[in-house]
Amino acid sequence: MECPSCHFQNMPGSKNCARCRAFLTLVDIDVNPPRATIGQRAIPRFLPRSWNRIRFRMLDSVHAAFLIRQTGVHFDGKLVDWLSLLVGGLNQWRRGEPRGWLWFYSWLLLLFLSLLWAGTPTGSFMLGLLFGLHVASIIGLFFRQFEEFSVRIRATVVVLLFTGLLYYSLLSLIVSFVVPIRFGMNTEELRSGDVLWYRPGYQTRPGDVVVYELPAVQIAGRRGNMAIQVALRGMRVNRLVATAGQRVQWKQKQLFIDDRVCVWQPGTTMNLFDSFDFLVPANSVFILPEDLVGDANLQNLSKLGPTTGTVSTTMVRGPVWFRSYPLFRMKFY
Amino acid sequence: MARFDKLEFDDAEETATGHSTSEQANVEKDERYWLEMAETQRRNGNHENALRFYSRSLEFDKSLMIAWVGQVQMLILLGEYPQACTWSKKAIELFPNNPDLLAAQSQAECRIGDFKKSNALIDGALQQRGESAYQWQVRAELMVAQRQKTDRYCFDKAQIASTDSLVPLETALIYLHYQEFAKAQQRIGLVLEKQADSYYAWYLLGWCQEKLGLTQAAIRSYRQCAELCPNHHEALMRLAQLRSGGWNIANLFRRIFRRS
């Protein structure tokens, strides 16, 4: 009996090949292969091929980007060239391209404008333009070498990913030092729409204008003939006047800290409060509750002076450092 | 209607193969006959029919190794990779360490995306006795799939192992699967040198040329295909699309982003 697989001559009557163990008697074996359903047929064609294509083409794009030095046409690939990619248009400007200066100065201008209007919709728009210009300048740098459409598209995706990552990291770094916020109320010190930059986690001292989270306080009030409940909470910006252990007194429309007239007297809002006299508890500070009253006529507010003004130190985010907007009221604190 | 899907009618098969009834009457329909039919269908790109005929030949002789391998190859060409994998495993159980079956399973695993397993299987296949063109083709496919640059050497080795025109034709199909149109076109050129009347090769050439942006050349190739096989629906459809200018979003984007 000859083995169909290895052609070894086996003894008659053998069930398996003595050399390769192949079956020699293939009587009750189904010869019709399993078939895929319509759904199954669609999945294997599409998924593995696409995944492999994405995987390898992404690698190709990165690989192509790193092989640019060998082609040596538009990008030398020295360390200084790679570093200059961090600034939009700098490479074009350094190489003295006809419109290189326009790329570079446009990027600088947009950077200045996005910082100037940071925290406003215009600032966000400028930041978007800045990012777009940066990406376009990098793509412009590499594109001349990529004549093929698909390579350009892939390179664009790679540049977008890397530049996005760069911007995200830089913005995260900046935000860890200074954060812009837009103020939404009118007080003695600030107006609605002001953009304030505060330093998160910095030490606060009496006299600082601080950003803090107000714990939720429910106060009954009236709006016209309607009885309403006003919930005071969320992020607030007011002046910190006393720290833990200091004595705070409000009498005869004047604020006293440790029996001395306070240098930072509150505005007219504080006139709504009854007189009070208390010690600031441990791990707390007293912040003037100047922006508490909106258009509602609040009841019970007169007795809430110490409650709304006393804030745990953990709720204080940091001191305000700079008011950048509006431009004519720009101020360092 | 699913239970009637697998029904086969003799008339349909005869029409597909192009043999007249009088010729058929004189031929004994044994395993060699069905194997020959399967090969013909395979060369013409009718992989579904080829698969069916391989099964027919196996009904006559279950030890026909070439038919087992052919079945797995057809399942792969039809895009049914998990089924190809299952079937190759079953065949390997019957014929352990058969190099072509190992290569077939390797190809199926490669298409699924398991390159590690695929590499191990093809290494095993090449260590066995008896070198075949198919083993080298699978080795080369793995290289194409993994973006290694030495695939050409392996495909050339496959062509040295067998001078059959089916080898460059299926090499072109592998390249087409990975969208390497220029390389596929080169291999189809080799097929047409040997067998200029292969309408399937003309169709594949047209496809490559179309994808490479050689529209006029693609039209000529499709027309050649349609002349050799007047009922070739795919070629006729592609011809009609190309003649009508074929508007689609991909072309629009390509036009927008194309540099002057």
Name some characteristics of this structure.
heterodimer; A: 333 residues; alpha+beta; 9-stranded antiparallel sheet; 4-stranded antiparallel sheet; 13 strands; B: 260 residues; mainly alpha; Serine Threonine Protein Phosphatase 5, Tetratricopeptide repeat; 2 domains; globular
Report the structural category of chain A. Answer: alpha+beta
Number of strands of chain B: 0
Radius of gyration of chain B over alpha carbons?
Answer: 20 Å
CATH architecture descriptor name of the largest domain in chain B? Alpha Horseshoe
CATH class of the largest domain in chain B: Mainly Alpha
Sheet/helix structural class of chain B: mainly alpha
Fraction of residues in H or I helices of chain A = 25-40%
What assembly state would you assign to the polypeptide chains in this entry?
A: heterodimer
Could you walk me through the main structural features you see in this protein, from its secondary elements to its overall organization?
The complex is a heterodimer of chains A (333) and B (260). In chain A, the strands form two sheets. In chain A, strands 1, 2, 3, 4, 9, 10, 11, 12 and 13 form a nine-stranded antiparallel beta sheet that branches. In chain A, strands 7-6-5-8 form a four-stranded antiparallel beta sheet, with no helix packed on it. In chain A, strand 5 and strand 6 form a beta hairpin. Chain A is α+β, with helices and mostly antiparallel strands and 333 residues long. About 2% of the residues of chain A have low confidence. Chain B has 260 residues and is mainly alpha-helical. Chain B has two domains: 203 residues, Serine Threonine Protein Phosphatase 5, Tetratricopeptide repeat, CATH 1.25.40.10; 56 residues, no CATH class. In chain B, helix 3 runs antiparallel to helix 4 and helix 5 packs antiparallel against helix 6. The longest helix of chain B is centred in the N-terminal third of the chain and has 14 residues. The interface between A and B is medium-sized, with 33 and 37 residues.
